[in-house]
Structures are given as structure tokens and as C-alpha cells.
Give the backbone structure.
Amino acid sequence: MPPSPGRRGEGREGARREHIVTSNLLRVSVLGISGRMGKALLAALDEISNAQLSGASASAASQWLGKDVSACAAGSPRNVSITADPASAVKGATVAVDFTLPAATVTNLRACVAARCPLVIGTTGHDAATLAEVERAAREIPVLLSANMSLGVNLLLKLAELTARALGENYDVEIFEAHHRNKKDAPSGTALALGNSVALGRGVALADVADYARHGQTGARRPGAIGFSVFRGGDVIGDHTVTFAGSGERIELTHRASDRLTFARGAVRAAQWIVGRAPGLYSMQDVLGLSP
């Protein structure tokens, strides 16, 4: 289950600044440069006139270690070598963006805390121990954790909460998600975040009402249950639908992603937003001004 927002930086209106940013240049370190999202981040950074890549990391087994970023992402040389050491990758960075694997999150967190570098985490599938590390790091630096960096998805999260609050438990809720065949975790972090939004709207804990599997003689639907279904196949980037099914009508809230740049652009916007914030754990809801 995705974490609750946790301790925030002080002051909801823009979150009190911990320091004054003295340069308009956004120097971004990308942790996980050789993956799909790492490459998309490079393209998104190229769309921002005052942003540049300052560092990049990949796994210790990567074939790209020691090479210029352009080797794995194509394009002109960027004079940034890929390293397996996140501490080296974040050196001199204004902000770091992490799209690695859950197993690498703790190491990346510690590197950013040591460098006093804000961190945006788009990696999903963290266990409870890692999420606890995230919250500890957020006492030292600003950390933004989101299961999905899409601006549209984060609006959908709010809409799901508001709809659940308005309709109540008389409407059954099902959350469907579809992703490419290589996605490793299920349900997706975004589907779980949507489940948490519905549960929040109803004033319950998702753990108490989630239904992740149906097989055999399941009996009638449990009142108040939030159901999940998962599709894996092909090259689907990410589809999510929350259905509220009542007597005589259904309401469906859907988001479909057709380009990974959607998530990368959201991550870059989050990186721009978090620079200068006070230590705390933030979400994309904060970036969009949707947090209470």
C-alpha cells in the first residue's frame, strides 16, 4: 500500500522555503538513466530552457557505466558520464529524480541526504521498511514520493476521493489497471493510490476493504469492498479506470497514458516545484495545489 503523505514541510501555501535558491538553472541528476523513464526524463528536460542534466546513475551491472549519457539515450554528447554511485551522480545537483528499482531507493535516499539534495521518487513497489526510510529522509531533505507523476492521474486521484465521499458505500467500486507485459508489481502503485483515495473519501482504511482476488465460489460481493483487477500485456503504457456501480447507473473515471513523456514531464514539474522547499514528505497533490 502506498504511504500516507506523512510529515509535510511547514506551511501548506508553497511550504516555507528552507533556503533561497540563488540560481534559476535547474541541475537535475537522473537516478536510473538507462531505463524507459530515465530516457523519457532526458527528453522532458530538453523541453525546459533553464534545466540541464548534471549527473546520471545506472545499476552496477549496466553496460553503460563510464559512458556518456548519449550512449544509452542517443543524441549529442552531454558531457555527463553514467555512474553506479548515486553519491557521485547527485554531486552538484539542484534536485535528483529517482526512477530505479525499489531495492535501490534506500541507497539513493542516503546519497541525497548526505548531499542535501531534494529528491523526487517515481519508483513504485516499495515495502514497509523502505517507506519508513523515505519518511526518515524527509526529516532531513524535501522528498516527493508519487506512484504516478502524470498530472492527469493526480487529478484523477482527487476526483476519485470526491466521488467516493459524495456517493458513499451504496456504490460498489472496482479499480482496473492495464500495463505492459514487463511490469513487475501488481496492482500498480497508481491503482493502489486510487484505492487509497476512494478509501479516504469513505473514511475507511484500504487494508480493511480491499479485494485483490476472486476465484471459485466467492459468494456475494462484500459490502463496502474496493475491488482490483489487473491486465498485463503488450506495450500498454498505463490505463486506469475507477468504476462506481450503483443501482441503475455506473460512473467511470478513466485515465489512459499514450506516451511516457507524460510521466517525465510531470516529474520535471515536480523537480522544479520541490527545489527550496522545507524538509518534508510531499506528493504530486502538493504540486497541483490539491492537498488540504
The chain has a mean pLDDT of 91. The chain has two domains: 26-149+261-287, 151-257.
